[in-house]
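thought: user wants a sequence for this fold. calling inverse folding tool.
action: design(structure=
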Protein backbone atom coordinates (compact mmCIF):
# COMPACT_ATOMS: atom_id res chain seq x y z
CA UNK A 1 0.00 0.00 0.00
CA UNK A 2 1.12 3.56 -0.66
CA UNK A 3 0.15 7.02 0.59
CA UNK A 4 -0.82 8.02 -2.96
CA UNK A 5 -3.13 6.15 -5.33
CA UNK A 6 -1.35 3.77 -7.67
CA UNK A 7 -4.20 4.30 -10.14
CA UNK A 8 -7.82 5.38 -10.13
CA UNK A 9 -10.97 3.72 -11.40
CA UNK A 10 -12.73 6.81 -12.67
CA UNK A 11 -12.92 8.77 -9.40
CA UNK A 12 -12.01 5.91 -7.05
CA UNK A 13 -8.42 5.84 -5.78
CA UNK A 14 -6.75 2.43 -5.52
CA UNK A 15 -3.93 2.50 -2.98
CA UNK A 16 -1.93 -0.44 -4.24
CA UNK A 17 -1.35 -2.70 -7.21
CA UNK A 18 -2.51 -6.12 -5.96
CA UNK A 19 -6.08 -7.26 -6.51
CA UNK A 20 -8.06 -10.21 -5.15
CA UNK A 21 -9.69 -12.10 -8.03
CA UNK A 22 -13.35 -13.15 -8.02
CA UNK A 23 -13.43 -16.87 -7.23
CA UNK A 24 -16.61 -18.88 -6.85
CA UNK A 25 -17.02 -20.34 -3.32
CA UNK A 26 -13.76 -18.71 -2.19
CA UNK A 27 -13.95 -14.91 -2.23
CA UNK A 28 -16.67 -14.66 0.36
CA UNK A 29 -16.74 -11.97 3.04
CA UNK A 30 -14.34 -13.74 5.50
CA UNK A 31 -11.69 -14.47 2.87
CA UNK A 32 -11.98 -11.01 1.37
CA UNK A 33 -11.47 -9.50 4.82
CA UNK A 34 -8.36 -11.60 5.40
CA UNK A 35 -6.98 -10.58 2.00
CA UNK A 36 -7.68 -6.91 2.69
CA UNK A 37 -5.94 -7.08 6.07
CA UNK A 38 -2.86 -8.43 4.30
CA UNK A 39 -2.76 -5.71 1.68
CA UNK A 40 -5.16 -6.39 -1.19
CA UNK A 41 -5.83 -2.95 -2.66
CA UNK A 42 -8.97 -3.88 -4.60
CA UNK A 43 -11.45 -6.63 -3.79
CA UNK A 44 -13.88 -8.52 -6.02
CA UNK A 45 -16.80 -10.57 -4.73
CA UNK A 46 -17.60 -14.03 -5.96
CA UNK A 47 -19.38 -13.80 -9.30
CA UNK A 48 -23.15 -13.80 -8.79
CA UNK A 49 -25.85 -15.01 -11.16
CA UNK A 50 -28.09 -12.14 -12.26
CA UNK A 51 -31.11 -14.46 -12.27
CA UNK A 52 -30.51 -15.34 -8.63
CA UNK A 53 -30.28 -11.69 -7.63
CA UNK A 54 -33.51 -10.77 -9.40
CA UNK A 55 -35.33 -13.80 -7.98
CA UNK A 56 -33.95 -13.16 -4.49
CA UNK A 57 -32.37 -16.59 -4.14
CA UNK A 58 -31.59 -17.10 -0.42
CA UNK A 59 -27.85 -17.61 -1.00
CA UNK A 60 -27.49 -14.20 -2.66
CA UNK A 61 -27.90 -12.07 0.43
CA UNK A 62 -24.64 -13.16 2.05
CA UNK A 63 -22.77 -12.87 -1.27
CA UNK A 64 -23.82 -9.24 -1.58
CA UNK A 65 -22.81 -8.33 1.96
CA UNK A 66 -19.48 -6.63 2.54
CA UNK A 67 -17.76 -4.58 5.22
CA UNK A 68 -16.46 -1.04 5.01
CA UNK A 69 -12.94 -2.40 5.50
CA UNK A 70 -13.20 -4.05 2.08
CA UNK A 71 -13.54 -0.84 0.07
CA UNK A 72 -12.97 -0.30 -2.75
CA UNK A 73 -15.02 -3.36 -3.61
CA UNK A 74 -16.42 -4.58 -6.92
CA UNK A 75 -19.53 -6.75 -7.01
CA UNK A 76 -19.26 -9.04 -10.01
CA UNK A 77 -22.35 -10.29 -11.85
CA UNK A 78 -22.90 -12.57 -14.84
CA UNK A 79 -25.62 -13.51 -17.29
CA UNK A 80 -26.17 -13.90 -21.03
CA UNK A 81 -29.14 -11.55 -21.24
CA UNK A 82 -28.55 -7.82 -21.63
CA UNK A 83 -31.79 -6.69 -20.00
CA UNK A 84 -31.32 -8.96 -16.99
CA UNK A 85 -27.76 -7.71 -16.49
CA UNK A 86 -28.98 -4.10 -16.57
CA UNK A 87 -31.84 -4.77 -14.14
CA UNK A 88 -29.48 -6.68 -11.87
CA UNK A 89 -26.86 -3.94 -11.85
CA UNK A 90 -29.51 -1.38 -10.91
CA UNK A 91 -30.60 -3.69 -8.08
CA UNK A 92 -27.03 -4.29 -6.93
CA UNK A 93 -26.43 -0.53 -6.80
CA UNK A 94 -28.76 -0.47 -3.77
CA UNK A 95 -26.05 -2.31 -1.82
CA UNK A 96 -23.71 0.65 -2.38
CA UNK A 97 -20.64 -1.06 -3.85
CA UNK A 98 -17.84 1.06 -5.26
CA UNK A 99 -17.85 -0.76 -8.59
CA UNK A 100 -20.02 -3.18 -10.56
CA UNK A 101 -18.03 -5.64 -12.66
CA UNK A 102 -19.34 -7.64 -15.60
CA UNK A 103 -18.00 -11.20 -15.75
CA UNK A 104 -16.90 -11.98 -19.30
CA UNK A 105 -14.16 -14.37 -18.29
CA UNK A 106 -15.55 -17.38 -16.42
CA UNK A 107 -14.78 -20.55 -18.38
CA UNK A 108 -16.80 -22.98 -16.24
CA UNK A 109 -18.91 -25.14 -18.53
CA UNK A 110 -22.17 -24.48 -16.68
CA UNK A 111 -21.73 -20.74 -17.27
CA UNK A 112 -19.91 -20.51 -20.60
CA UNK A 113 -22.25 -23.05 -22.24
CA UNK A 114 -25.19 -20.68 -21.74
CA UNK A 115 -23.09 -17.92 -23.31
CA UNK A 116 -22.53 -16.13 -20.02
CA UNK A 117 -19.07 -15.47 -18.56
CA UNK A 118 -16.53 -15.82 -21.35
CA UNK A 119 -19.44 -16.80 -23.61
CA UNK A 120 -20.48 -13.15 -23.58
CA UNK A 121 -17.34 -12.37 -25.60
CA UNK A 122 -18.97 -14.21 -28.50
CA UNK A 123 -21.59 -11.44 -28.67
CA UNK A 124 -19.72 -8.10 -28.93
CA UNK A 125 -23.01 -6.27 -29.64
CA UNK A 126 -24.30 -7.39 -26.24
CA UNK A 127 -21.13 -6.19 -24.53
CA UNK A 128 -21.54 -2.79 -26.19
CA UNK A 129 -25.18 -2.50 -25.07
CA UNK A 130 -24.39 -3.54 -21.50
CA UNK A 131 -21.62 -0.99 -21.02
CA UNK A 132 -23.32 1.77 -22.97
CA UNK A 133 -26.52 1.54 -20.95
CA UNK A 134 -25.04 0.88 -17.53
CA UNK A 135 -22.55 3.73 -17.74
CA UNK A 136 -25.44 6.06 -18.51
CA UNK A 137 -27.79 4.70 -15.86
CA UNK A 138 -25.40 4.31 -12.93
CA UNK A 139 -23.22 6.76 -11.05
CA UNK A 140 -20.45 4.29 -10.16
CA UNK A 141 -17.77 2.74 -12.39
CA UNK A 142 -18.69 -0.23 -14.56
CA UNK A 143 -15.78 -2.55 -15.26
CA UNK A 144 -15.21 -5.89 -16.95
CA UNK A 145 -13.11 -9.02 -16.71
CA UNK A 146 -12.34 -11.02 -19.85
CA UNK A 147 -10.21 -13.83 -21.23
CA UNK A 148 -8.36 -13.83 -24.53
CA UNK A 149 -11.38 -15.30 -26.27
CA UNK A 150 -13.36 -18.49 -26.80
CA UNK A 151 -10.58 -20.61 -28.32
CA UNK A 152 -7.31 -20.20 -30.27
CA UNK A 153 -9.27 -19.44 -33.45
CA UNK A 154 -11.42 -16.76 -31.84
CA UNK A 155 -9.21 -14.51 -29.76
CA UNK A 156 -11.22 -11.30 -29.83
CA UNK A 157 -9.85 -9.75 -26.65
CA UNK A 158 -8.82 -6.55 -28.42
CA UNK A 159 -12.24 -6.05 -29.97
CA UNK A 160 -13.95 -6.52 -26.60
CA UNK A 161 -11.39 -4.30 -24.85
CA UNK A 162 -12.07 -1.46 -27.26
CA UNK A 163 -15.84 -1.93 -26.91
CA UNK A 164 -15.60 -1.72 -23.13
CA UNK A 165 -13.61 1.51 -23.24
CA UNK A 166 -15.61 3.11 -26.07
CA UNK A 167 -18.85 2.47 -24.18
CA UNK A 168 -17.77 4.00 -20.90
CA UNK A 169 -16.12 1.12 -19.07
CA UNK A 170 -13.72 2.32 -16.38
CA UNK A 171 -11.31 -0.64 -16.13
CA UNK A 172 -10.58 -3.97 -17.76
CA UNK A 173 -9.05 -7.07 -16.17
CA UNK A 174 -7.65 -9.73 -18.51
CA UNK A 175 -6.84 -13.37 -17.84
CA UNK A 176 -4.21 -14.55 -20.30
CA UNK A 177 -5.95 -17.75 -21.43
CA UNK A 178 -8.83 -18.68 -23.72
CA UNK A 179 -12.02 -20.42 -22.63
CA UNK A 180 -10.93 -23.82 -23.90
CA UNK A 181 -7.68 -23.63 -21.93
CA UNK A 182 -9.52 -23.14 -18.64
CA UNK A 183 -6.50 -23.09 -16.29
CA UNK A 184 -4.32 -25.45 -18.32
CA UNK A 185 -1.12 -24.53 -20.08
CA UNK A 186 0.66 -21.22 -19.65
CA UNK A 187 -1.02 -17.84 -19.51
CA UNK A 188 -0.05 -15.56 -22.39
CA UNK A 189 0.87 -12.13 -21.09
CA UNK A 190 1.57 -10.58 -24.51
CA UNK A 191 -2.11 -9.76 -25.19
CA UNK A 192 -2.34 -8.05 -21.80
CA UNK A 193 0.58 -5.83 -22.81
CA UNK A 194 -1.11 -5.15 -26.14
CA UNK A 195 -4.36 -4.09 -24.49
CA UNK A 196 -2.54 -1.93 -21.95
CA UNK A 197 -0.68 -0.16 -24.74
CA UNK A 198 -3.97 0.47 -26.59
CA UNK A 199 -6.43 1.49 -23.87
CA UNK A 200 -6.41 4.63 -21.76
CA UNK A 201 -8.40 3.07 -18.90
CA UNK A 202 -6.59 0.99 -16.25
CA UNK A 203 -5.76 -2.61 -17.15
CA UNK A 204 -5.32 -5.41 -14.63
CA UNK A 205 -3.20 -8.43 -15.57
CA UNK A 206 -4.21 -11.92 -14.46
CA UNK A 207 -2.93 -15.45 -14.99
CA UNK A 208 -0.02 -17.55 -13.65
CA UNK A 209 0.84 -15.20 -10.80
CA UNK A 210 1.90 -17.88 -8.34
CA UNK A 211 4.81 -16.31 -6.47
CA UNK A 212 5.96 -12.92 -5.28
CA UNK A 213 8.48 -12.76 -8.13
CA UNK A 214 5.67 -13.38 -10.64
CA UNK A 215 4.10 -10.08 -9.59
CA UNK A 216 7.11 -8.15 -10.78
CA UNK A 217 7.43 -10.28 -13.90
CA UNK A 218 3.89 -9.69 -15.14
CA UNK A 219 4.09 -5.98 -14.37
CA UNK A 220 7.37 -5.65 -16.24
CA UNK A 221 6.08 -7.71 -19.17
CA UNK A 222 2.72 -5.95 -19.57
CA UNK A 223 3.06 -2.56 -17.85
CA UNK A 224 -0.36 -3.32 -16.33
CA UNK A 225 -1.70 -1.00 -13.64
CA UNK A 226 -2.32 -3.82 -11.18
CA UNK A 227 -1.99 -7.58 -10.80
CA UNK A 228 -4.93 -9.83 -10.01
CA UNK A 229 -4.17 -12.82 -7.78
CA UNK A 230 -6.57 -15.74 -7.54
CA UNK A 231 -5.73 -19.34 -6.69
CA UNK A 232 -2.27 -18.49 -5.38
CA UNK A 233 -3.83 -16.43 -2.57
CA UNK A 234 -5.91 -19.33 -1.21
CA UNK A 235 -4.21 -20.27 2.04
CA UNK A 236 -1.61 -17.61 1.35
CA UNK A 237 -2.97 -14.07 1.89
CA UNK A 238 0.62 -12.96 2.50
CA UNK A 239 0.89 -12.71 -1.29
CA UNK A 240 -0.79 -9.32 -0.89
CA UNK A 241 1.94 -8.24 1.54
CA UNK A 242 4.62 -9.46 -0.88
CA UNK A 243 5.88 -11.86 1.80
CA UNK A 244 6.83 -15.42 0.88
CA UNK A 245 4.80 -17.90 2.89
CA UNK A 246 7.94 -19.77 3.91
CA UNK A 247 8.91 -16.71 5.94
CA UNK A 248 5.66 -16.77 7.97
CA UNK A 249 6.06 -18.21 11.46
CA UNK A 250 3.79 -21.05 12.55
CA UNK A 251 2.42 -18.72 15.24
CA UNK A 252 1.26 -16.19 12.66
CA UNK A 253 -0.03 -18.97 10.44
CA UNK A 254 -2.13 -20.46 13.23
CA UNK A 255 -3.47 -17.06 14.29
CA UNK A 256 -4.52 -16.33 10.70
CA UNK A 257 -6.24 -19.71 10.46
CA UNK A 258 -8.09 -19.10 13.71
CA UNK A 259 -9.12 -15.61 12.62
CA UNK A 260 -10.36 -16.91 9.28
CA UNK A 261 -12.24 -19.85 10.81
CA UNK A 262 -13.89 -17.67 13.46
CA UNK A 263 -15.07 -15.25 10.80
CA UNK A 264 -16.40 -18.10 8.63
CA UNK A 265 -18.46 -19.41 11.52
CA UNK A 266 -19.76 -15.96 12.45
CA UNK A 267 -20.96 -15.39 8.89
CA UNK A 268 -22.19 -18.87 7.90
CA UNK A 269 -22.89 -20.55 11.23
CA UNK A 270 -21.00 -23.41 13.00
CA UNK A 271 -21.76 -26.28 10.60
CA UNK A 272 -21.62 -24.52 7.24
CA UNK A 273 -18.77 -22.25 8.31
CA UNK A 274 -16.53 -25.17 9.34
CA UNK A 275 -17.43 -27.17 6.25
CA UNK A 276 -16.63 -24.24 3.95
CA UNK A 277 -13.37 -23.56 5.76
CA UNK A 278 -11.93 -27.03 5.19
CA UNK A 279 -10.81 -26.24 1.65
CA UNK A 280 -8.94 -23.19 2.98
CA UNK A 281 -7.21 -25.24 5.69
CA UNK A 282 -5.85 -27.65 3.09
CA UNK A 283 -4.05 -24.72 1.47
CA UNK A 284 -2.99 -22.91 4.63
CA UNK A 285 -1.26 -26.00 5.98
CA UNK A 286 -0.20 -27.67 2.73
CA UNK A 287 -2.05 -30.66 4.10
CA UNK A 288 -1.70 -32.68 0.92
CA UNK A 289 1.95 -33.13 1.91
CA UNK A 290 1.01 -34.59 5.30
CA UNK A 291 -0.06 -38.17 6.13
CA UNK A 292 -3.49 -39.10 4.79
CA UNK A 293 -4.80 -40.22 8.20
CA UNK A 294 -4.08 -36.80 9.68
CA UNK A 295 -5.77 -35.04 6.78
CA UNK A 296 -8.82 -37.23 7.22
CA UNK A 297 -8.86 -36.65 10.97
CA UNK A 298 -8.85 -32.89 10.53
CA UNK A 299 -11.32 -32.85 7.63
CA UNK A 300 -13.89 -34.92 9.55
CA UNK A 301 -14.05 -32.83 12.73
CA UNK A 302 -17.60 -31.66 13.43
CA UNK A 303 -17.02 -28.56 15.55
CA UNK A 304 -14.65 -25.62 15.77
CA UNK A 305 -13.29 -26.94 19.06
CA UNK A 306 -12.57 -30.41 17.64
CA UNK A 307 -10.97 -28.88 14.56
CA UNK A 308 -8.67 -26.66 16.61
CA UNK A 309 -7.77 -29.53 18.97
CA UNK A 310 -6.49 -31.61 16.06
CA UNK A 311 -4.86 -28.60 14.45
CA UNK A 312 -2.97 -27.55 17.55
CA UNK A 313 -2.30 -31.01 18.96
CA UNK A 314 -1.30 -32.96 15.86
CA UNK A 315 -0.86 -30.81 12.75
CA UNK A 316 1.01 -27.75 14.05
CA UNK A 317 3.78 -29.81 15.72
CA UNK A 318 4.45 -31.49 12.37
CA UNK A 319 4.35 -28.11 10.64
CA UNK A 320 6.85 -26.80 13.23
CA UNK A 321 9.33 -29.57 12.59
CA UNK A 322 8.91 -29.65 8.82
CA UNK A 323 8.80 -25.96 7.93
CA UNK A 324 10.71 -24.14 10.65
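)
observation: tool returned 324 residues.
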Amino acid sequence: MTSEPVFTIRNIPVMGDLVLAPMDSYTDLPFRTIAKKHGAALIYTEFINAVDILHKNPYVRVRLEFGELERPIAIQIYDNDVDRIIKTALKVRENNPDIIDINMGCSAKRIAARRAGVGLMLAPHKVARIFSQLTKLLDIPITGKIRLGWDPDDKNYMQIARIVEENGGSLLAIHGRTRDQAYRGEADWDPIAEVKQTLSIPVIGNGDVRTISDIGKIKAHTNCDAVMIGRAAIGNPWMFSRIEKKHISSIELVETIKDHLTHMISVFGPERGLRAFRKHSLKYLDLMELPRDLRKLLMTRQSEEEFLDVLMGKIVPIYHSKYE
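thought: summarizing for user.
answer: Here is the designed sequence. The first strand starts at residue 7 and ends at 9.
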